[in-house]
């Protein structure tokens, strides 16, 4: 039995969205009916409309109040702009900041555009320094300055520190809620210290052990602290083999370390070894998710700024450059075919068979490209193993070309009763698979070499190469051996 949407704690995000959409539709329907009635009686509609409107808003607000900020963000992202702003207006102001952190960049821009500077500054007051730093790139500079000035001295210093690091660095992700203890105290003293907190910061799985000058000495996992003799000194229990990061460290490399070592949190240390902040798994997961979303959109020629419900003009302008690039590559491929119009006129079977050669080459090249892009992301490709990778991919392409080229050659022979055509088909298939392997290997490597993300754009250039060369090889061989 599916969970009931009446209970916000058991309903799914999609059920929340459906429920809110139904409430909004109900509100529009009733208001429309009341407005039509008002055309006949101008005295009653104002009162009736006000009561119905208020009742729907109260029910909608009650549902929103019971939802987690991430669920409210999901609802906002799934609504057209007009409905989105209605729902946003019903969110209590003290929750604005948390929800702004959860929504996508495109939706966040529409929400911020509906807020004045005072509302944005007020929303930021309920956020930590690292969270404000996440929002800062989407805010006007004067609003950021107002937010900084609204902080107390300690929080202002933390915020300015977080804002000083570029996007994509550990410093832009770090959290200043650090729980540290000295190594010369006992477990009992450490536990008494922890009891002074109302609650520990989220993702706290270990205490950072420091000396008198806050230099990192190691970490003490909570699971070890809780089961140890209260009289034992922390120094005898701490783990000195610590994975730590500098604020200038690359966030992508830090994410790989979190995955490799199954980290929940890790200290961030200054150049002289002092603990200044921490990096937590939730911040790392957010960074990885955003990076992956950006790559997925970029592969299709989309930018992160495009809202699902943005205007036709903005969406068309966003997608235009990518379509222009595809148009250029497709036109070039068509010119390759055009150069062999005479051959195609003499043997019509060529027109039916040439897309097969190009299509199989494209699929094979994409397999190689996906493998290389993944290897580059994991830093598994080096000058030492590049030749071995090349030899392997060429071997695979030749083997597949021999097997499947022969299969297609036999099929072409049976279809058109032409042995020579079958031979041309088999040879063209093998040669284009070799080209696809080379393109799938070298295109991502070249993009990496020139500082471009190999996951973005590789497929376009790969398709261009395999289509153009597939047509050229097949039609060229046919012209030589068949005509």
Strand order of the largest sheet: 1-2-3
Total separate domains: 3
Ranges with pLDDT <50 over ≥5 residues?
Answer: 1-5
| Strand fraction | 5-15%
Q: Per the principal axes of the C-alpha atoms, what is the gross shape?
A: globular
Tell me the total number of β-strands: 5
Can you identify the CATH superfamily of the largest domain?
SLC41 divalent cation transporters, integral membrane domain
Distance between the termini: 68 Å
- Derived structural class: mainly alpha
Mean pLDDT: 86
Sheet bearing the most strands, described? Answer: 3 strands, mixed
What's the CATH architecture of the largest domain?
Orthogonal Bundle
What's the quaternary structure here?
A: single chain
Distinct helical segment count: 20
Radius of gyration: 31 Å
CATH class descriptor of the largest domain: Mainly Alpha
Helix percent reads: 55-70%
Written as H for each helix and E for each strand, in order along the chain, the element string is HHHHHHHHHHEHEEHHEEHHHHHHH
Q: Can you give me a brief rundown of this structure?
A:
The protein has 483 residues and is mainly alpha-helical. It is built from 20 helices and five strands. α7 packs across α9, α8 packs across α10 and α13 packs across α14.
Characteristics:
single chain; 65% helix; MgtE N-terminal fold; CBS-domain; disordered N terminus; two-stranded antiparallel sheet; mainly alpha; Tetracycline Repressor, domain 2
Sequence-ordered SSE layout with sheet pairings:
Elements: H1 13-38, H2 45-65, H3 69-77, H4 81-90, H5 96-102, H6 105-113, H7 117-124, H8 129-135, H9 141-150, H10 153-163, E1 180-182, H11 187-194, E2 206-210, E3 216-221, H12 222-227, H13 251-261, E4 265-269, E5 275-280, H14 281-299, H15 312-338, H16 341-346, H17 349-377, H18 383-416, H19 419-449, H20 458-481
Parallel strand pairs: 1-2
Antiparallel strand pairs: 2-3, 4-5
